[in-house]
C-alpha cells in the first residue's frame, strides 16, 4: 500500500493530463449507467480508489450523490482542484472508515487491481459492511491471472504492482462476502489496454438467507 500511495502521489498531475475524463467506451459507460439507474436517489455512493475523481464526477453527472476515497493525497489534490463541488477523502479500501450500512452504492473502478489477491476477501467483506441491504456494487478490473511489476508509469519512475484477476475467482469471492452478481461484462481490450477487462455489477444480499 505504501508503494502504491507513493507511486500515485508521484504521477498524479500527469495521470490527470493523460487520462481523459470518462474516456471509457460505450460498454463501460453502459455499466456505469445501469449502476446509476439501479441506485437512483436511494442514498449516497462512494467511489473507492477514486484517483483524480473523473469517475466520481461522472457518477454525479448521472444523478448520484457521489463522493470519493483514495489512498493517495496527491491524486486527491488533483481531484479537488478539478472537481471542487465534490467530496474527497483520504482512505484505504482495506480499512474503510465508514459506518455500517451507510451507502446505497459503491464503485471500485480499476482500484482492486492494486490489492494483493489474498486480501480481496477482507476488502469485499468491508464493501458488504458499509453498504445498506440491497445496496449495489460495481467493480472494474483487468482480467487475467498474473502480477505485473511497474517501474515506469505516466512518464515517471515508480515501483508498484498491478494484479490481473480471474473473473470467475472474483465472482466467487463476492458471493462469499454476501453479494449476488447480477451482470458481468468480460470484454476484449480497447485502445491502449494490454489485455481483457471485466466489469461486475452486484447486489448486497443477506449472507444468512442465501
How would you characterize this protein structure?
This protein has helices spanning 2-18, 26-39, 54-61, 73-82, 120-130, 167-177, and strands at residues 45-48, 66-70, 87-90, 103-109, 131-142, 146-153, 156-164, 179-187, 197-204. The chain has 210 residues and is of the alpha/beta class. A hairpin with a 2-residue loop joins strand 6 and strand 7. The chain has a seven-stranded mixed beta sheet, with helices on both faces. A two-stranded antiparallel ribbon has the order 6-7. The chain is globular and about 45 Å long. The termini are far apart. It has six helices and nine strands, in the order H-H-E-H-E-H-E-E-H-E-E-E-H-E-E. The protein has one domain (2-204): Rossmann fold (3-Layer(aba) Sandwich), CATH 3.40.50.150.
Quick tags:
210 residues, alpha/beta, Rossmann fold, seven-stranded mixed β-sheet, two-stranded antiparallel ribbon, 6 helices, 34% helix
CATH topology-level name: Rossmann fold
| Total discrete domains | 1
Main β sheet profile: 7 strands, mixed
Q: Using only CA atoms, what is the Rg?
A: 16 Å
- Distance, first to last CA: 33 Å
Tell me, rounded to a whole number, the average pLDDT. 94
Contiguous runs where pLDDT drops below 50 for at least 5 residues:
none
What is the H level of CATH, i.e. the homologous superfamily?
Answer: Vaccinia Virus protein VP39
Share of residues in helices: 25-40%
Q: What is the beta-strand fraction?
A: 25-35%
Amino acid at each position: 500500500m505504501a508503494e502504491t500511495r507513493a507511486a500515485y502521489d508521484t504521477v498524479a498531475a500527469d495521470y490527470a493530463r493523460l487520462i481523459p475524463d470518462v474516456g471509457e467506451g460505450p460498454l463501460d459507460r453502459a455499466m456505469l449507467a445501469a449502476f446509476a439507474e439501479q441506485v437512483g436517489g436511494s442514498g449516497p455512493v462512494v467511489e473507492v480508489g477514486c484517483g483524480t475523481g473523473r469517475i466520481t464526477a461522472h457518477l454525479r453527472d448521472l444523478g448520484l450523490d457521489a463522493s470519493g476515497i483514495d489512498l493517495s493525497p496527491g491524486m486527491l489534490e488533483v481531484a479537488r482542484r478539478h472537481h471542487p463541488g465534490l467530496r474527497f477523502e483520504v482512505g484505504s479500501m482495506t480499512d474503510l472508515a465508514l459506518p455500517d450500512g451507510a451507502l446505497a452504492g459503491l464503485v471500485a473502478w480499476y482500484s482492486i487491481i492494486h490489492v494483493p489477491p489474498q486480501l480481496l476477501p477482507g476488502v469485499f467483506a468491508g464493501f458488504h459492511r458499509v453498504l445498506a441491504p440491497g445496496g449495489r456494487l460495481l467493480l472494474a478490473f483487468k482480467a487475467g491471472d498474473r502480477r505485473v511489476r511497474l517501474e515506469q508509469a505516466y512518464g515517471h519512475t515508480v515501483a508498484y504492482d498491478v494484479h490481473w484477476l480471474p473473473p470467475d475467482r472474483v465472482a466467487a469471492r463476492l458471493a462469499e462476502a454476501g453479494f449476488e452478481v447480477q451482470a458481468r461484462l468480460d470484454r476484449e481490450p480497447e485502445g491502449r489496454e494490454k489485455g481483457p477487462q471485466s466489469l461486475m455489477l452486484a447486489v448486497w444480499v443477506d449472507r444468512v438467507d442465501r
